[in-house]
Amino acid sequence: MASFTSPTSTDGPPLPIANQKNAIPTPLDATHLTHTLTAHPRPVPSATAIASSPTTICTDHMILASWNHTTGWSAPALQPYAPLSLPPTASCLHYATTCFEGLKTYRGDDSRLRLFRLPRNCARLGRSAARVALPVPDPTALAALVRALLAVDAGRWLPADSASCSPYSGDGDRFLYVRPTLIGTQAQIGL
């Protein structure tokens, strides 16, 4: 169980460059997270709207980090929710090089946020990534990024005030569904 507070909008420290001599890729590092907050927050839908279409509603932000063989992970960036751009030959479209993990975040009666087994979910995403030949993110860094996203969006989308409109499941529990996803975007197609 965890309690989160909203960070201020700030840029993190500069990202270290991978050791080119020994070709050591930079690991995923949540301490380098940069924040670009949306200038146009989405309206939080009513509980009725959410109940009729819960899988189509997203919060205001997402976190992206790219990876390549030479430099490893880029600095993660918390940014406004937006479509992704992929080349038509992206490996995720042709070879299913993708994996995800899903977890729910609940607001308790004491107003604290609760994530069920976040470390295990992050470790499982790493095992899935290895199976489909994707880079394995550090589970501790991934958990910190999930918490950072919730620190920014949970206050509005899962408010502590139980009388507010917020996401509900069919049984009345308020939650946010968080879905860390890895996708292969390298343009490659072949036989």
From TrEMBL:
InterPro entries in the record: Aminotransferase-like, B_amino_transII, BCAT-like_N
The keyword Transferase appears for this protein: yes
Domain of life: Eukaryota
Swiss-Prot/TrEMBL keywords: Aminotransferase, Pyridoxal phosphate, Transferase
Required cofactor(s): pyridoxal 5'-phosphate
UniProt similarity note: Belongs to the class-IV pyridoxal-phosphate-dependent aminotransferase family.
Protein name per its UniProtKB record: Branched-chain-amino-acid aminotransferase
Organism per entry: Lasiodiplodia theobromae
